[in-house]
Amino acid sequence: MKVLVLGAGATGGYFGGRLLEKGEDVTFLVREKRENQLKEEGLVIKSKHGDAHLRPRTIRAGSGDEPFDVVFIATKAYHLKEALEAVEPFVREYTTVIPLLNGIEHLDEMRRFFSKDQVIGGLCFIESTLNEKGHIIQTSETHELAYGEWSGRETDRVKKLSETFSGTEASFRLSDTIEQDMWQKYLFITTLSGMTSLMRSSIGPVLDTLEGRTYLQQLFEEVRLTMVENGAPLAEGIVEKQMGLTEKLGYNMKSSMLRDIEKGLHIEADHLQGYLLLLAERTGVETPLLRLIYQHLKVYEKNLQ
Ligand SMILES: NC(=O)C1=CN([C@@H]2O[C@H](COP(=O)(O)OP(=O)(O)OC[C@H]3O[C@@H](n4cnc5c(N)ncnc54)[C@H](OP(=O)(O)O)[C@@H]3O)[C@@H](O)[C@H]2O)C=CC1
Ligand SMILES: CC(C)(CO)C(=O)C(=O)O
């Protein structure tokens, strides 16, 4: 299977790199600076699951229209439109497109570019970042990429994907509840990134204070209610489950949003917290803490300009 990864950053570089390491036919669609970095340094993964030093094949936007069987979309949400324009010529009607972004709003944009049938569900659980040399630094125990049909069915195409993804160092999981998985990850990441960014702290110190835990629970509840009122298929008891998961995170665990803030980079505030506020307004859900967090993130963005 010919695999194209759009974006050789922290997530795309990691999972695409693991497929390449296994011997799959992987190409990365990149921009000039990253292409040069990959030529000079190679695709370097430093991970608790084993390091890798790879020489990937890269292509650039406008460099032709070679077809691919599967395309991973692994950019930040604020780069999505340009990224989709770049990848479009490499997609055919038989191509399966798998998004790795956090959130939900990108699905609308992707379905405008490709047919509903081409885009399946996808997400990843991983802590990964790029250092100043462009090396991928992967620090979490979990390094899982989940994908699946919206119907949950094990179709021929996802069976073929499973074969391609099996035996890889990272964990690729075929899910029969991918829509629910994506909403639940969205609940988790909006809360975790919102709280750790607001507090400018990893999760440990936040949980170490009584008020921190109370606010975390309140934020989970605001987001859960917003999602449920907008028809999201969340499981019963999801807040208790995710509070439990959060308590088990390492003391120094940070969201990728906080890591980006620490590096002075752009963040996905509109895509994550902002979109939820729109959904809350649409259905009349009160979300005071989410509003404060969004305002805080917008002030950070304003100061970047
Ligand atoms: N990092 C993490 O731990 C996790 C991240 N996520 C989510 O995954 C998504 C991707 O995040 P992440 O991998 O961290 O982001 P990164 O910024 O590390 O990587 C994104 C990559 O996309 C590239 N890119 C952007 N636009 C284009 C384009 N038009 N053509 C080609 N390449 C392009 C960027 O390249 P360039 O260098 O040219 O800008 C960059 O290398 C986000 O939604 C994030 O929330 C989810 C789970 C964990
Ligand atoms: C919480 C985590 C690390 C899980 O994958 C994540 O998605 C992020 O920080 O963006």
UniProtKB/TrEMBL annotation:
Ketopantoate reductase N-terminal domain boundaries: 3-151
Gene3D superfamilies for the chain: N-(1-d-carboxylethyl)-l-norvaline Dehydrogenase, domain 2 (1.10.1040.10), NAD(P)-binding Rossmann-like Domain (3.40.50.720)
Enzyme class label: oxidoreductase
Classification via Pfam families: ApbA (PF02558), ApbA_C (PF08546)
Record GO terms (molecular function): 2-dehydropantoate 2-reductase activity
UniProt keyword annotations, A-Z: NADP, Oxidoreductase, Pantothenate biosynthesis
Keyword NADP in annotation: yes
Leader sequence residues: none
Assigned GO CC terms: cytoplasm
GO BP field: pantothenate biosynthetic process
Catalytic activity: (R)-pantoate + NADP(+) = 2-dehydropantoate + NADPH + H(+)
Functional note: Catalyzes the NADPH-dependent reduction of ketopantoate into pantoic acid.
Family: Belongs to the ketopantoate reductase family.
Protein's UniProt name: 2-dehydropantoate 2-reductase
Upper classification of the organism: Bacteria, Bacillati, Bacillota, Bacilli, Bacillales
